[in-house]
Amino acid sequence: MSIDAGYETRPEGVNSEHQSKRRKENSARKKLAYRDYAVGWVAALSEEHAAARAMLDELHQELPQKEGDSNIYTLGRIGDHNIVIAGLPSDGYGTVNAATVGKDMHRTFPSLRDYLMVGVAGGAGKAGKFDVRLGDIVVGDKLVQYDLKKDLSPHYFETTAVPLRPSQRLRIAVAKLKSVHEAEESEVPTYIREIANNNPKMKRYSIRPSLQDLLFEDTYEHTEPNEICDTCDRSKLVERQRREHDGPEIHYGVIASGNSLIKSPEKRNQLVEQFKALCFEMEGAGIIESLQCLVIRSICDYADSHKNKLWQPYAAAAAAAYAKELILAIPTSENQESKLVRDELLFGEIKALQDSLSFGSILFREHSIQSPHGDTCKWIFRHSTYLTWLDPKERPRHNGFLWIRGKPGAGKSTLMKLIYTSLKSKFNAISFFFNARGDLLEKSSQGMYRSLLLQILQQLPTSQQEQLFRHHPLLRSIKPGCIKWDNGTLQELLSKAISQFVQGELMCLVDALDECGEDEVYDIVEYFEKLGKLASEAKVSLFICLSSRHYPSISVRDGITLMLEDQSGHRKDLGEYVNDKLHVDSVNAEIIRNTLIRKAAGVFMWVVLVVTILNKEYQSGRIFAVKKRLNVIPDELNELFKDMLKRDNNNMDEFLLSIQWILYAREPLKPQEYYYALQAGLDYEQGDLGEWDRQEVTIQNMEQYVLTSSKGLAEVTKGWHPIVQFIHESVRDFLLKDGGINEIWPSLECDFQSYSHNVLKRCCYAYIGARVSDTSVPTQDQIISSSFLRRFPFTTIAIRDVAYHSRAASVKLSQQDFLESFDFTTWTALCNPCSDQLTAYEVCESLFSLLTSQIPDDCSIRGTAQKSTHYHKLPPVLDCPFYHGWTPLGLASRENHGDLIRVLLDRGVDVNGRDIHDRTPLFYATLYGRQWEAIRRVLLRTLDRTNAEDDTKILELLLSRGANVNIADKSGETPLHAAVTCGHTSHVQLFLDHGAQVDAPARNSMTPLHLAAMKRHDEIIELLLNKGAHVNTPNKLDGRTPLHIAIDGGKPLPKKPSPNYGTRVNQFGYNDRIPFHIAVNGKESAASRLLFEHGGWMNAPDGDNIMTPPQQLATINKVVKILLGRGAQINTPNHTGKTALHIAAIFGYKKLTEMLVSYGAKTGISDNDSKTPLQLAVENGHSKIVELLQPLTRADKKT
């Protein structure tokens, strides 16, 4: 077994990282309940399953396997339909296996209404009157099991099968799609192409095999051992007429199903003649009778001896593509549509709350604990206390509460990780491992509650999460990105989540509870006691296991306690470790081992350190001194640390700097960062801080340097993100809590923390200074190259943290001289190569600290615009572009860092300074509001911006200092364009009041009025028109006026109608389809806001576009009416010749069409394709528009 917290490691190998990535991806997906799925999809082959999965618009989280169901499911969504995909066992083809899969699927997902059997089949070829070719699709309107027979004579059988049909609902959907294909091309080729676009590894699914489609004569047998027919006689091919296209044809008819594979043209032709079968497969009959499924097949061979697998991937993709097109044609009710959209919005809100619970290092401590040594720790699974804890019959006695206590370094964390690993493989489990070396959330009760709540939410179905949050004030009153969690709210939500947990037993493990303060420990234990009782009352099987050091003053009323060092199994673990690691072969070896275990008193950390000391004595030849050395080694861990350090007084300056970096670094350092951090602080020659020569100094050298410089008290963790840390938390306690610093360095200043930060600041600055030479300062080419940071690995830490340590040191030590001489030129130059490692906000904070750290505490300038008398001279470089090409003021405005904005303005920076995009700080201050609002619209129900006043104050501040409101960027956009786009009415008014040009044209002559029409901001449209905006200006791209754009949302018009008449939330451009509706920012329903921000669209059915939210239709009508009332020319065509009436007819906006007609829209105008609004309404299936326009069009023609 390893020690409690020492010898930590992250998971090793690519496999662990891949599994972690998959778990993370799965947890980020939506999780529904079993009852939420409506379509079952069975795929027999692995290629068929892969093709089916590729057709999903969205993947969902996996659900727990139900008892008795061995199917493996893939869950997701196509359009509005939630899909369950099930595969057959790899060796289990045929009707019987298919029937078993279908039965289990129906039992697990009882709400399934539609079932599809989708995959490949052998084709009829040119038998009879059919011409079915490889890659063609066969939709089974009938299915017959051809191998059901009765005996008529010794040599003659008659098939007794009765043709089976899919459900009436599916037959209607097939008929509907078939009628669409009479007039329009199928979407199947598009869906097939997209497989490769979305999944590069699946290119063979999207490309027809290079081998030709070969159909040989019935009498010609395949004789070569090779499956491929490249040596077969081409003169035996059946002559077939060449098709005009390469895409698959869709056939409708009989599919023959049986339990044997047909590889005989005679048998194939017999079945074609008897049943008129188009293809032959092996599973459909197994589920169609009980589940009335629809069988969809694509041809991969001709059911003859020339059968091979080359066409299987493409055929699987073709069948899956048709299945997707069919699913999109299956209608859903309006109520269901509204619920789906509402659920989408609520899911987005819940996802935002989940994201706010998480923090970057939430799993670090758990992953960093090494696995036990050998077979140690496994005694716990046989221990009577542990078994009593898990025994349901004993639960009333202990309320599912187990507390493992032990001395520091005893090995509690290693034991807890083993228990957790075991439990989570069998039960639902959540855990938190406190990390005293981590950031605040890693070592606080709030971090624990956040982590536990997040984990349990990820295990709850979406429906239960919605029930938990639906009416919670968090969804209404908290700003995105700034959710302020408190322990009370977290405890409330965690209690509610656990009380409604019905997914089986729930294990909750919390390690190293003592890393909190003692008051926090009291509160945590009290809460968990209440939680255990609450769970019992709610009939929830909750098991809680805590671990900590001994707390004699804290106990639990109902619970079990296990003292680790008192357990015989633990003592045996110590003995096993000593026997394995102690290399002493003297006659006193047994005495030494027994003495070592006795003195350890159950502390594994002590054993690990002492074994190392004794091995060194023995290996140096001092065999006689081993026993004596053991006898004088202190029994207590703290005294052992002190003894180790007193015996080695070499390089104490290096040791001091080592512990300062480990104690006070902003975050743990990597080995290479640690190496150069110490080099920078030990007064070596500047050349030692140059480029890292990996030939001269290897990672192994650096890891050894960690051990020697820290005198064995620090280590490098193993795994994929190695860092430097103390070997155990007790080292930190010894140095800080138990006075170790003062004992070793009694002459140091009393405020060791400020003193240390000042030292670390100098290390960072020394490393920055070493970059001043011509060969080290990065050029623009070097900035682009990621190799710069590999060559100078401490750069990012030095650039980011020099300000952090300066501000931390300023609590007790003046920074005036340091900051007045600070080299901002080099610092800003080095921000660029670090731009991928530093966030914009971190750069702002660093710059703010560098400009203000010398200001006394009683003159804090946060939130003020004064105290300028305390500023040192502003370097000219801070008025030029640097990080990502932004100026400091532009960056501060983009990040809404008001404090830095005030400091820079007070120092006289150019308020109109442009960055590399020609954008000014005013533009970014406006754009920030747009980004904030975009998040708000997706995540929150409320539309009021709680931070709008702050944004406006920033804009007013910039304007009061001379910001020019009409400066355009390289695309011609001004701050007014940005304000209009994000829908900030108050900002638009502010800019207009400050002289913004109301008709300023951006790229393609898009004026602010075009943008307002696109977003359908009626209030902003009124503001712009009142300021004299021209209502009939066409843009240069396609000639659309604000009137056109108000109707079509500024997006390209669809080329043809879609068979999907349901609401679909996807990104723009999905499946080459163009969004039909652009939601109305600021006035629409919450559902349409979500659809807009996610780039979604709605494909409307016949009539007055009932799938468009009523609020959106009303707003479109309102905006159009405003424009018409202000002089918009109603019959002006765009570049394609379409008027406003053409566009309304395409979308099926009935009331809008009536309004346009009433305002004088001409119905007889033809577009560039010679189509009138009436013809477009017909093509798009809007019968009510047709009824309205038909008589008017006749009248126009007569006129």
TrEMBL record:
PROSITE patterns: ANK_REP_REGION, ANK_REPEAT. ANK repeats lie at residues 884-916, 971-1003, 1004-1036, 1136-1168, 1169-1189. GO terms for biological process: nucleoside metabolic process. Gene3D superfamilies: Ankyrin repeat-containing domain, Nucleoside phosphorylase domain, P-loop containing nucleotide triphosphate hydrolases. Residues 375-549 form the Nephrocystin 3-like N-terminal domain. Keywords: ANK repeat, Repeat. One of its GO terms (molecular function) is catalytic activity. This is Nucleoside phosphorylase domain-containing protein. SUPFAM superfamilies: Ankyrin repeat, P-loop containing nucleoside triphosphate hydrolases, Purine and uridine phosphorylases. It comes from Xylaria bambusicola. Residues 1-27 are annotated as: Disordered. Residues 64-323 form the Nucleoside phosphorylase domain. It comes from the Eukaryota.
